[in-house]
Each structure stands twice: as structure tokens, then as C-alpha cells.
Task: inverse folding
């Protein structure tokens, strides 16, 4: 993991850091210390719970990484994407097999999820650049604001769902599901009910998006990974390829929206583009993006669990490309990346499966949102405490808070 704090002696570096080539650099995960083991387990459990609710859980993971691995918040914000990707993959494997207890249709609406992917990836690319160059104080302020916003939205949704569940328990019947934008349950087409040709179209579309993004990254290269066509890092052609990738992804969004989205939702095209880009932008900051996507899917007529399930699919796609950039750009070492990814995939799959099945059986899926309210509050408080602790280690220098970094 990158750390720009200079050093001359080992004593000048904080715990879990080594003075290497005049820079305090975080130790490798192996052999792990006891706090690191607890941190790995905590990240696996918390990201499992967070991704089950359709968010990346970046705020919680950043707090855990600073608490147990002693990362600076700047480092944690750059390295958070690997556990988010691992959690999203583990959770998707679980949710892809589940159905909504109210509509008896799949939890993950892949057709709608694919639509927002290109714009969300564009936002993630922009967010990752801003994450690298903006001062730590600005990033933490942004993170705290949206954690508060997220907590408020989770509370409103949790309270609504809790009341609905109580009503169902009293009447022993499911209440009518509100449908917004004149959508009905019958009009919601699941991937499982579509033809083989349509399913192949979805798979091909996903592959085209992923291959396009990876090809763009390999063509332009990075500071630690040479371009396969010899492009100089941060040169003219580097940024031209980046711009070209943005244009192609925008074209993908325009084409995929018209191809896969229902006619009733066509007037929401601009709103979908805006929300998808914003979700990607926050994902680039390590925030996930579910806090933007879930309200958007609710406005499209999805139930709460379908909104969170489809959002988790978007987190999977977007976090994959951001995680790839983190490794290619050298923000995290390969050993740390593999360790965090493996732990969260395994931990998230089992934790999300156990939690979902038990809550579904008891008709208390709203507890997912209530849990996220608590986790978000914890992340806000812990992040503030960790921020001032880290700042004090550098002698409370204002320059450390407002220093911009050069992306190149």
C-alpha cells in the first residue's frame, strides 16, 4: 500500500509500518498479527451484511481498515475497493439464487442492473481520480456527509418496512405492494423467465462492458504497469484513451437503456444517467453507490429487497473495474489484494446467505436496514476518532489536511 510519509529510521513509522526506501510502508498481511486477523474477520462479516442491503459498505470498511490495520484514512479510501469487490461477488452468488417473498420473482433484476453499469463505471473512473488528488480533509468531509445522508435514508426505509411487516403479521396476508411509475408486477420481467436468446444477450452485454474497460486500462497503462502499445503514463495519448473510454461507455449506456429498459421507464433516461454517474462517483470515493441506486430502483417500482439485490449486482460490476484500477495503478500490493478479496468472498457468501435465509423465514428483512443504520453510525463516529488520532501523529499540521497530490 502506498504511503507518502517520509522516514529515516524505523522508529519514525507507526505500528504495522516499515521504513522502506525512505517511505513508511504498510507490512504485508502475512504473517498476520492478531489485530489483522480480527480485522479480516470483521470486514468479511460487515461487508456481507452491507452488500446484502445493496451497498458496498465502504464507510464501514474504511473504519475497520484504519482500526485494525492502522492504515491512514487516505490509504484505506484507496484500498477499500478490493474487499468491496469480494463482498459483492460473494453476496451476488447468494442472492442470484433467492426470490422476493412478496412477488415470488428473483431478487436480482439483472436486466435493469445492466442498464446503469456503463454510466456508473464512468463515475467510478472520475471518482478514483478525485480520490487520489483531493486532500484528505475534503475526502473525509465528503464521506461523513454521505454517511449521514445514507443513515437517514436507511432509517426511513427500515421504519417503513418494519411497519409493513407488522401489518402482515397482524393480517397474516401480504399487503398490496405499491408500484411507482405505473409499473405492475406482471410487467417486471426476470432473467429466469426470459428466453435463452435474451439471456445470452445479457451475458454478452456484461462481457462487452468488462472487456472494453479492461482493454482501455491495458492500452493506456499506469505508473506501475506499462501500456501494451507503449503509451507514456499521463501523456497526451493516455488521456485521449481515457476520454475515448468515457465516450464509448456513454454510447453503451444509451444503447443498452433503449434495448433493455421498459417503455414505461424511457422518460427516466436522463435521471437514470445522472443517478448512475453519481453512484459511480461515490464508488470511486470508496462509498459504494447503493445509497443512490436503491432510491432510484424504488422509484422504478422495485420492492425494497429487489432494489437492494439489483444494487448489489451494480456494486459487483463497478467495484470490479475500480479494484482492477487499484491493482494496476499500484495502490495496493498483489498479496494484500488477494488476501482481502479471498476473505471477503468466502465470508460474505456464508454470512449473507445465513442472514438472508433466517430473516426471510421470519419476515423481518427490514432488520437488514436497521443493522445498516447502526453500522453507518458506528462508521461515522469511528472515522472521526481515527481521523483526529492520525492527525495528532503528524503534529496537527494543517498542511497535512489540505495537501493536494499529483495523480501522475
Result:
Amino acid at each position: 500500500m502506498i504511503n507518502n510519509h517520509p522516514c529515516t529510521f524505523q522508529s519514525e513509522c507507526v505500528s504495522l509500518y516499515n521504513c522502506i526506501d525512505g517511505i513508511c510502508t504498510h507490512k504485508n498481511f502475512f504473517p498476520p498479527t492478531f489485530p489483522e486477523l480480527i480485522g479480516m474477520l470483521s470486514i468479511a462479516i460487515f461487508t456481507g451484511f452491507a452488500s446484502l442491503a445493496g451497498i458496498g459498505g465502504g464507510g464501514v470498511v474504511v473504519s475497520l481498515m484504519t482500526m485494525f490495520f492502522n492504515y491512514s484514512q487516505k490509504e484505506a479510501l484507496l484500498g477499500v475497493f478490493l474487499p468491496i469487490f469480494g463482498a459483492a461477488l460473494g453476496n451476488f452468488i447468494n442472492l442470484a439464487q433467492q426470490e422476493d417473498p412478496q412477488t415470488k420473482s428473483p431478487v436480482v433484476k439483472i436486466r435493469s442492473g445492466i442498464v446503469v453499469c456503463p454510466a456508473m463505471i464512468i463515475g467510478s473512473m472520475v471518482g478514483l481520480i478525485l480520490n487520489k488528488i483531493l486532500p484528505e480533509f475534503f475526502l473525509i468531509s465528503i464521506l461523513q456527509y454521505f454517511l449521514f445522508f445514507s443513515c437517514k435514508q436507511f432509517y426511513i426505509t427500515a421504519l417503513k418496512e418494519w411497519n409493513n411487516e407488522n401489518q402482515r403479521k397482524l393480517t397474516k396476508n401480504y399487503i398490496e405492494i405499491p408500484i411507482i411509475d405505473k409499473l405492475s408486477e406482471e410487467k417486471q420481467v426476470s432473467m429466469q423467465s426470459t428466453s435463452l436468446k435474451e439471456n445470452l444477450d445479457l451475458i454478452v452485454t456484461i462481457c462487452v462492458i468488462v472487456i472494453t474497460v479492461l482493454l482501455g486500462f491495458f492500452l493506456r497503462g499506469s505508473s506501475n504497469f506499462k501500456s501494451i502499445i507503449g503509451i507514456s503514463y499521463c501523456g497526451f495519448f493516455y488521456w485521449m484513451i481515457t476520454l475515448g473510454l468515457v465516450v464509448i461507455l456513454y454510447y453503451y449506456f444509451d444503447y443498452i437503456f433503449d434495448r433493455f429498459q421498459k417503455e414505461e421507464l424511457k422518460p427516466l433516461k436522463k435521471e437514470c444517467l445522472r443517478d448512475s454517474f453519481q453512484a459511480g462517483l461515490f464508488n470511486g470515493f470508496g462509498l459504494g453507490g447503493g445509497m443512490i441506486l436503491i432510491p432510484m430502483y424504488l422509484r422504478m417500482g422495485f420492492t425494497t429487497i429487489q432494489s437492494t439485490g439489483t444494487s448489489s449486482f451494480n456494486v459487483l460490476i463497478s467495484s470490479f473495474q475500480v479494484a482492477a484500477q487499484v491493482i494496476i495503478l499500484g495502490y495496493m500490493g498483489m498479496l494484500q489484494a488477494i488476501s482481502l478479496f479471498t476473505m471477503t468472498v468466502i465470508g460474505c457468501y456464508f454470512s449473507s446467505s445465513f442472514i438472508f435465509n433466517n430473516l426471510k423465514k421470519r419476515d423481518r428483512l427490514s432488520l437488514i436496514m436497521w443493522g445498516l443504520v447502526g453500522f453507518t453510525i458506528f462508521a461515522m463516529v469511528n472515522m472521526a476518532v481515527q481521523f483526529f488520532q492520525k492527525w495528532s501523529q503528524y503534529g496537527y499540521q494543517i498542511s497535512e489536511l489540505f495537501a493536494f497530490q499529483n495523480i501522475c
Notes: The chain has one domain: 10-26+34-395. Confidence is low (pLDDT under 50) at residues 174-195. Residues 71 and 205 are 38 Å apart (CA to CA). The first helix runs from residue 34 to 52.
